[in-house]
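sanity check this chain:
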Amino acid sequence: MNKKAVIVFSGGQDSTTCLIHALPNYDEVHCITFDYGQRHRAEIEVAQQLSARLGIKVHKVLDTSLLNELAISSLTRDNIPVPTAASSRDSVPNTFVPGRNILFLTLASIYAYQVGAEALITGICETECSGYPDCRDDFVTALNNSIELGMDYKLRIETPLMWLNKAETWALADYHNQLDLIRYDTLSCYNGIKGSGCTRCDACSLRAKGLTEFMRNKAETMNHLKEKLNLSR
């Protein structure tokens, strides 16, 4: 039986790590990227480059600009400054795009239904997520149940990074021998700068902190990763 998966793919650290982790486990992997008029829309081109480089045959980019009209955020409005990491720790930051993961996972599930995929994979992570409410495990579980009921289709939403910290996410890239790819060729920065990014926004701060921790404690971090994901080697 041909095992198929669909990945919500932004070209950032998390979704690209999910992609390289999925490739050995599925016969066919589809990528789906959303263009919602985001400030850091350079991620779309980066996602296309990465999927081609990793041998993905089907990569869809969907226009979801309606989200830009409805959701007010510093990622959808150029006149709202992106906060620095230090200023966004105590509450949900203005980089939160209301409904984004609800919409993306729903649309990706419809696509998964059409292509007959058994899994929908997303880089959502509760452990280090800037406080976004739609990155929680209970949200994903509830939405997964609703999608299965609404389409009468057995679909598994996989969140391999859900309980990993950023250091362990870096370790997962290293486990698949793709540390340099993730480090230099992905785009996580809210200001649209590839690699290490602007170094000021929350996404860049979490990414850099995790890399520093991983490089400082490689062996220990890798062991924790293997235990959490039940990796064999």
Summary: Residues 100-115 form the longest helix (16 residues). The chain has nine helices and five strands. The first strand starts at residue 4 and ends at 8. Strands lie at 4-8, 28-35, 58-63, 119-121, 156-158.
